[in-house]
Amino acid sequence: MVQPINFFDLSKISADERAQLLIRSEEKLEAFLDGARPIIDAVRQEGDAALARFAQKFDKSTVTNETLKASEAEFEAAFQAVDQDIIDSIHYAVENIRRFHERQKPDSMWLDEIRPGLFCGEKTTPIPSVACYVPRGKGSFPSVVMMTTVPAVVAGVPRIVIITPPGPEGSVDPATLVAARIVGVQDVYKCGGAQGVAAVAFGTETVPRCHKIVGPGSPWVVAAKQILAGQIDPGLPAGPSESIVLADGSADPQIAALDLLIEAEHGPDSSAYLVTDSREVAEQALAAIPNFYAQMTPERVKFVETVLSGPCGGIVLAPNMTEALSFVNDYAPEHLEVLSDSPMQYLSEITNASEILLGDNTPFVLGNFVLGPNAVLPTSGFSKTWSPLSVFDYVKRSSIAHVTDPAYRELAFHAERLARYEGFDAHANAISQTRDKIKTRNRP
């Protein structure tokens, strides 16, 4: 029996009901935070032994202390297991992602004379190490390998590792290993969930401690990142998938329905809405959705039905496009697709979206795999303040300044005045006549 799909008319619901539509599953983290803490403590105290135990308990895997790291034999077997056409597509996607991120890469250094004798600039260097989290529970994600590791390689990060939940046989998804090797990453570790985050936060006998972790994950991963933010840079907030298909009256309802299912099939904790100002588009899309279920596996259909009939999905009818755009900006989706004969007309009005895909030739699928821009994106409304994963997430900047003798006196005059006002005696003395006298004595 097909579950009924939510249909919300913004002109008929209250402000509180509208606010409820903006809530994501990952915002309800209390239970996960409580559950993650003992897991994290165990990894900190027991290291590899805890990782192996949790792999056996949570992943039903045969991983042991000795097999936590993927071996060279496993890499070789992966290339034999994955069809050549998939390997070719991974190469194609990696090249597009690499080209995009090469364009992002900042200059290693710049230094400009902003006033006569005052030179200021920045020096950019890669972070020392990063762990890339690759999910597995509800599918295989070589795409996440590519999205997280390619910009790290472009940025020049010296140590890049992958952590991923193991399969029942103690193995890593073969395409994940293939993608890692194609990108150039050698170290893959079989630990997911909160225990994987803890492993790279503290380090174990096998898994190295890393300075940062990136990549999407379950609420367990999100919770662990929050708890361990003092031990490891948790990166951008990337939780369960979420999307909005924004369609005006010129959109094809069948395409709108087809694309609404894309992110919804990631799992029952996903969020997915079709937002439109056209009742005709809304009703025809609603009628079309069940027709696409026949082309999906029962597992994916169940995920979609759970999302579209639950608290984080469905169809939203707005009284006009102004209200539709307002809803989109308030929601601040991870993925946004704009369906219209003229999608560019709305671009200037969209202020909060991690990814904006324009037109019916640019479905979420292309962005997830092969377009080039990164598909690891801030979720849960954080596109209001965060940007997509990029080269900039793998580098840090140092400010540089140099002052010449002729420029020093003017700068010191204003700095001493401000230091005196703020009550910092040592600050003021360091650029007062005291400094001048010292420098004069030291000159030959």
Provide a descriptive summary of the structure in words.
This protein has 17 helices and 13 strands. By secondary structure, it is of the alpha/beta class. The protein folds into 3 domains: 7-24 and 240-368, Nitrogenase molybdenum iron protein domain (Rossmann fold); 30-111 and 127-238 and 392-396, Nitrogenase molybdenum iron protein domain (Rossmann fold), CATH 3.40.50; 404-442, no CATH class. The strands form 3 sheets. It has a 6-stranded parallel sheet with strand order 1-10-9-8-11-12, sandwiched between helices. A 4-stranded parallel sheet has the order 6-5-4-7, with helices on both faces. Helix 7 (174-183) links the parallel strand 5 and strand 6. Helix 5 (84-104) packs parallel to helix 6 (142-155). The radius of gyration is 26 Å and the shape is globular. The N and C termini lie far apart (93 Å). The mean pLDDT is 95.
Radius of gyration: 26 Å
Q: Class of the largest domain in CATH?
A: Alpha Beta
Note the gap between the termini: 93 Å
Supply the CATH superfamily name of the largest domain. Answer: Nitrogenase molybdenum iron protein domain
**Uncertain ranges:** none
Number of domains: 3
The CATH architecture of the largest domain: 3-Layer(aba) Sandwich
Number of helices: 17
Number of strands: 13
